[in-house]
Amino acid sequence: MNEIIAFFEQNIEIIYLLTFAVFLGFEVISKIPTILHTPLMSGSNAISGVVLIGAILLIRVTEPTDYFPLIMATLGIILGTINLVGGLAVTSRMLEMFNKKKRK
């Protein structure tokens, strides 16, 4: 139990930041009207790119024995990559709908 308490005391700022980011992300996404959701996907892709860069930088500067930041950065890389690839696929498909079909 003392290890868990010590872990939270050492990483309280990261835990606060993660909690704030979750609530902020939920509030921002829930307030977007459905009609604007697909065009804003491109902006989400840019944010995912920033998350990927930040996670890569975090892995580079973290000590090998500091597991919490390493796990969070790895999770950020995995989820950011999934979001980026999925968002690009949806955006590409949406843009194909606006192309004029060629007549034969």
Total of helices: 5
Shape: elongated
Q: Which structural class fits the helix and strand makeup?
A: mainly alpha
Residue-averaged pLDDT: 83
Q: Ranges with pLDDT <50 over ≥5 residues?
A: none
Give the ordered list of helices and strands. Answer: HHHHH
Strand content: under 5%
Task: Tell me about the largest β-sheet.
Answer: none
N→C terminal distance: 72 Å
Percent range of helical residues: over 70%
Number of strands: 0
What do you see in this structure?
This protein is elongated. The protein has 104 residues and is mostly helical. It starts with a helix and ends in a 7-residue tail after the last helix. It contains five helices and no strands.
Q: Helices and strands in order, then pairings?
A:
Elements: H1 2-10, H2 12-30, H3 34-37, H4 41-61, H5 67-97
